[in-house]
Amino acid sequence: MSIWKRKPLSQLLNEAADSEKGLKKTLTAPGLVALGIGAIIGAGLFSITGLAASANAGPAITISFLVAAFGCVFAGLCYAEFSSMIPVAGSAYTYSFATMGEFIAWIIGWDLVLEYAVGAATVSISWSRYFGKFLAGYGININEAYMLSPFEGGIINIPAVLIVMIISLILIRGTKESSFFNGIIVLLKVSVVLVFIAVGWQYIRPENFTPYIPENTGKFGEFGFSGIIRAAAIVFFAYIGFDAVSTAAQEAKNPKRDMPIGILLSLGICTILYILFAHVMTGVVNYQAFAGKDGIAPVAVAVEAMGTAGPDGMITPAYPWLNNAILLAILGGYASVILVMLMGQSRVFFSMSKDGLMPKIFSEVHPKFRTPAKNNLLFMVIVSLFAAFIPARVVGEMTSIGTLFAFILVCIGVLIMRKKMPEAPRAFRTPLVPFVPIAGVAVCLFMMVFLPLDTWIRLIVWMMIGFDLYLFYGMKHSKLNKGHFSLRSYKTVASSGLGMVLALIVIAFIHHSDAALDDHFLFYFSLFFAALHAVIYAFSYKKVRIL
Fold first, then answer.
1. pTM to 2 decimals?
2. Which sequence ranges are marked TM in the entry (predicted)?
């Protein structure tokens, strides 16, 4: 048996027929565009944008949004082809299983678990800042120490933990978002963006755009061209959700025509809104104001500056009632986003468990609520820990790099599928193959390269932990391969692990050469982690039969 063995397309289609019977073809191009706008305009715009502007791009964050959109266009078209062929749960994990085999499916599944988990943590941290601002509007002030991580001068982010726990418990009980509720949330999110642009435009101060592209500080990624591209990779988080359009391919009346319209038009509209939003945000307040703890809640910072300055320099908000109305709408929208991210994570983990790659306990359903309750409880703890103790910048960048990595594998998967299964039925075909998937890989990889090296270190460490689980558990319990693999398969996994060890050491040394004193812990941890795993993988390679 081989780690490259693919899950048969016929088996996946049978699963789709059993679990998703009755999907009606009701969506037209306008419906897909509306779905896309609702999915794209989410937490990323209201959270990570301020941090990226203050630390990387300045007012040129508008250009960063345009660059990020290009990567989404190419990846979205590839997602659309896959979803029209394989309409089952699991997203890119399932697509990879059908095209590139179990090992790559494991890698992408483990990556998606990271993406959704840290994504939910990022949103919950931002929710906490907005919640604090909302309460402050009514004279209720929470001690800052209980709204910040230890790395930001606090003790623990309690509101972020509480919202994760509440949403997780809701998921365990199996409460579903109705189409009506979804419609209300979409309306709220779009309204917040439009109101923010309309009201804020009159308070733009032209001096805040000078310089439009701040001069590079001498460090890679801090303003200048490298800062714009790094910010594009960071704010890529704001586009998470656009692939929801591709997952609706089976419900489109005319997917060949309507899918590209839905993807491209929704991306285009949202990109314009994002650019206008960022233009107002950095025009109302100087981009440097978004540095620090409040950068994760940029709308609150900007809204407070929409008014006239008094003799003492203090700004009196022109629309005080609007401030809390916008914050309340954002809080409601955030709760929905956290729910969707935690639900998506549980679906991927559930699929991996069903395939035998993770313990069976995580695919067990609650006898009363019929939900993967133990799965939800596990990630309630993990995401809560991220939200409580990890800075927003770290989890935000981890979400972006995980998403970009997933998009790269989906684009590669389309190339493989076209070669291996050219006659397989497709409701939608990605246009201009191989240009579109190759361009998707190139643009996404280009943005990944510009992300901070400490983000790469954390991604590699996470993936190596995944390799450990696959070597010592997944390969033994694989249902597709029935737990039986050739020696070559074990050696391939071990060799891949050694390659990641080498990459970790190289990146750690490069990062350390330009790191602040506070980053020394990450350097020594990386070396220790690499040395430990070098022994593990080398032993696995030589003594593979004992695994």
1. 0.83
2. 31-53, 59-80, 92-110, 154-172, 184-204, 224-242, 263-285, 321-344, 377-395, 401-418, 430-450, 456-473, 493-510, 522-541
